[in-house]
């Protein structure tokens, strides 16, 4: 059995979900106030079906079996969700108790122990503490971010040995330069442990106390730590990000700490790397509003532009916090309390681009080029008022007549999808004919026969539907998101039609199959017409055949 099936089968969704939401029995199902991040509600629209082993929210339309539920609720990737499920079913599972997973678990534990060692060492080192207090950090920050200090490789080594870690495991942890000499590579440094979204420690950043170089030293990339994926401070920030519905992204870990310490809890750091698509995937599940606050030097500017490029066309709204020259957020927080004002006055990418651009506005060519670039950015905004605001900004700034701008904008936005709000709506509410057909079959096997008997162009039906008609069980072999979606549709429709009589459903099905036939008919005809354009003889023959069948069956 595939590991995912094995895991999902050994977990009861009701038991799993009750770890996150207070479930109340409602008929055959359970109800709760929606626990998914980003959706707050008073009356419960979140349902769990023990029979289908599925959770579904009628408010925010998130759905899933055990695995997808964990991914959505914890904001984690597939791999991590698997590990959580494996953790829950630990005793029940044998096949998954693989060597690799054990090693990972041991490293997590080792890091946890190392962190508690480093923390103790910091408590005994007033000089290191002073460094942190001098940066305006508070006592609470020490425990929140688990600050530590590396004082002695030998005692760290002995401490780990006492906890029964063997040399091989200690070597794998990447903390020691040389185990024989018990040499901790972070010696003399303040330790900033890096956590993943689930709390586990996955790596360390360490700052030298004193004037030595390099100032900061990081753990190397590893199976647990991928810089292009992990955002520093996100574990601490994730709740605040969903509540405030925006995230502030800074360059350096220290900036994220200072910001959070100054009550800008929704701040994360990219740790001196570029903002990547992986970062965005993680953030997208929490919010679609990003505020960039990078350093104001050349490197920071470059990082900002690069980030804007990465964010473009991904349905994010982005603003750039315009801090005074020669300062970084960390320094600012020390001298100003009104960072809030900076957030409020953050620049749109439009302003930022214009401010930073080398375009010569008096050259028509440059002006046009800049205009297209700016409109491309505006297109990504979802709020019409905001869009209008930016368009105004452009015509004022570039000194072009407003109707020309609107005309250009219409052209550019027509080419692509409208705005993501509408896109999301479509994705959530419009199920395709194929999906509905599959739903009928899942609802009752006897509908399968009806569909089979009444479909007029059986050779043309979709692959998935064909598979389901051949064997309903096939659904279990579908890719998880697809499978869960189909099951969720069935849950949604069946609860809407709970009180419907069997006759009503039969009548609906009859109408639906008619719709299906019309759809296939139109599809076949348009394909044939294409072929007929190139005088394909077979296409002509086929065409008259199809028209005849359609007439006989009263399809228009
Ligand atoms: Zn919901």
Question: How would you write the strand order of the largest sheet?
Answer: 1-2-3-4-5
| Major pleated sheet | 5 strands, antiparallel
Number of beta-strand segments: 15
Shape: globular
Question: Structurally, how many domains make up the residues?
Answer: 5
Roughly what percent helix? 40-55%
Distance between the termini: 47 Å
Q: How would you portray this structure in words?
A:
The protein is of the alpha+beta class and 556 residues long. It has 5 domains: 3-88, DNA Primase, Chain A (Alpha-Beta Complex), CATH 3.90.580.10; 99-218, DNA primase DNAg catalytic core, N-terminal domain (Alpha-Beta Complex); 234-347, 3-Layer(aba) Sandwich (Dna Topoisomerase Vi A Subunit, Chain: A, domain 2); 354-426, no CATH class; 431-552. Helix content is 54%, strand content 10%. It contains 26 helices and 15 strands. The strands form 4 sheets. Strands 1-2-3-4-5 form a 5-stranded antiparallel beta sheet. Strands 6-9-10-11 form a 4-stranded antiparallel beta sheet, with helices on one face. It has a 4-stranded parallel beta sheet with strand order 13-12-14-15, with helices on both faces. The longest helix is centred in the last third of the chain and has 32 residues, at 502-533. It is globular, with a radius of gyration of 29 Å. It starts with a helix and ends with a helix. Mean pLDDT is 82; it is low at 415-429. The structure holds zinc ion. The site of zinc ion (ZN) has 8 residues, from loops.
């Amino acid at each position: 059995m595939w590991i995912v099936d094995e895991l999902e089968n050994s977990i009861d969704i009701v038991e799993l979900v009750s770890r996150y939401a207070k479930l109340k029995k409602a008929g055959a199902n359970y109800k709760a106030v929606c626990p998914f991040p980003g959706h707050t509600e008073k009356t419960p629209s979140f349902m769990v079906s023990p029979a289908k082993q599925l959770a579904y929210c009628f408010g925010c339309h998130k759905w899933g079996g055990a695995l997808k539920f964990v991914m959505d609720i914890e904001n984690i990737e597939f791999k991590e969700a698997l590990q959580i499920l494996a953790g829950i079913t630990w005793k029940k599972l044998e096949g998954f108790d693989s060597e690799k997973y054990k090693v990972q678990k041991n490293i997590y534990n080792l890091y946890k122990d190392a962190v508690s060692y480093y923390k103790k060492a910091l408590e005994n080192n007033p000089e290191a503490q002073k460094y942190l207090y001098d940066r305006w950090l508070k006592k609470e920050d020490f425990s929140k971010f688990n600050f530590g200090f590396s004082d002695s490789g030998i005692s760290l080594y002995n401490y780990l040995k006492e906890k029964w870690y063997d040399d091989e495991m200690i070597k794998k942890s990447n903390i020691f330069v040389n185990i024989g000499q018990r040499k901790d590579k972070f010696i003399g440094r303040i330790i900033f442990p890096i956590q993943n979204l689930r709390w586990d420690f996955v790596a360390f950043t360490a700052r030298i106390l004193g004037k030595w170089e390099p100032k900061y030293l990081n753990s190397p990339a590893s199976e647990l730590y991928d810089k292009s994926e992990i955002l520093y401070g996100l574990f601490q920030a994730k709740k605040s990000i969903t509540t405030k519905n925006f995230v502030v992204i800074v360059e350096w870990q220290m900036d994220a700490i200072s910001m959070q310490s100054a009550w800008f809890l929704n701040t994360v750091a990219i740790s001196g790397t570029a903002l990547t698509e992986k970062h965005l995937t993680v953030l997208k599940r929490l919010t679609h509003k990003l505020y960039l606050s990078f350093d104001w030097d050349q490197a920071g500017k470059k990082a900002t532009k690069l980030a804007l490029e990465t964010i473009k066309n991904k349905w994010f709204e982005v603003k750039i916090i315009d801090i005074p020259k020669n300062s970084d957020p960390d320094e600012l927080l020390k001298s100003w309390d009104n960072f809030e004002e900076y957030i409020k006055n953050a620049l749109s990418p439009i302003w930022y681009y214009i401010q930073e651009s080398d375009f010569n506005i008096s050259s028509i060519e440059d002006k046009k080029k800049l205009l297209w670039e700016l409109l491309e950015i505006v297109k990504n905004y979802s709020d019409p008022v905001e869009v209008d605001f930016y368009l105004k900004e452009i015509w004022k700034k570039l000194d072009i007549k407003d109707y020309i701008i609107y005309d250009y904008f219409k052209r550019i936005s027509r080419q692509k999808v409208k705005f993501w709000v509408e896109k999301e709506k479509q994705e959530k509410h419009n199920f395709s004919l194929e999906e509905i057909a599959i739903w009928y079959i899942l609802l009752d096997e006897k509908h399968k026969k009806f569909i089979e008997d009444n479909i007029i162009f059986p050779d043309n039906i979709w692959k998935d539907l064909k598979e389901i008609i051949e064997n309903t069980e096939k659904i279990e072999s579908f890719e998880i998101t697809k499978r869960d979606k189909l099951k969720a549709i069935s849950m949604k429709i069946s609860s809407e039609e709970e009180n419907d009589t069997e006759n009503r459903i039969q009548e609906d099905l009859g109408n639906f199959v008619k719709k299906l036939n019309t759809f296939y008919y139109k599809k076949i005809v348009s394909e044939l017409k294409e072929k007929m354009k190139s005088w394909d003889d077979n296409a002509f023959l086929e065409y008259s055949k199809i028209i005849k069948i359609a007439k006989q069956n009263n399809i228009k």
